[in-house]
Design brief:
The protein has 65 residues and is an all-alpha fold. The chain contains 2 helices and no strands. It is elongated and about 45 Å long.
C-alpha cells in the first residue's frame, strides 16, 4: 500500500507539473494542446502537483503493515 500511494503521488506530481508548464507556456508539447498558454491550467496543475507531493510524503512516512 505504501508503494502504491507513493506511485500515485509521483504520477499526480508529474501530470500537475506538465499541466502547469503547458499553461505557463514553458512546455509547448503537444503543439495542438488546448492547455497551451491558458492561465487556469497553471492553477489546476499546481493544485494537482501539490496533491501528488502530499501523497508522496504520506507514502514515505506511512508505517509498513
Amino acid at each position: 500500500m505504501k508503494g502504491l500511494v507513493t506511485f500515485v503521488g509521483v504520477l499526480l506530481l508529474a501530470a500537475g507539473l506538465l499541466f502547469a508548464g503547458q499553461g505557463a507556456g514553458i512546455i509547448d508539447w503537444p503543439s495542438g494542446s488546448f492547455m497551451l498558454g491558458a492561465d487556469r491550467w497553471v492553477t489546476y496543475g499546481l493544485v494537482l502537483a501539490g496533491i501528488g507531493l502530499l501523497l508522496i510524503i504520506v507514502g514515505w512516512r506511512r508505517r509498513s503493515l
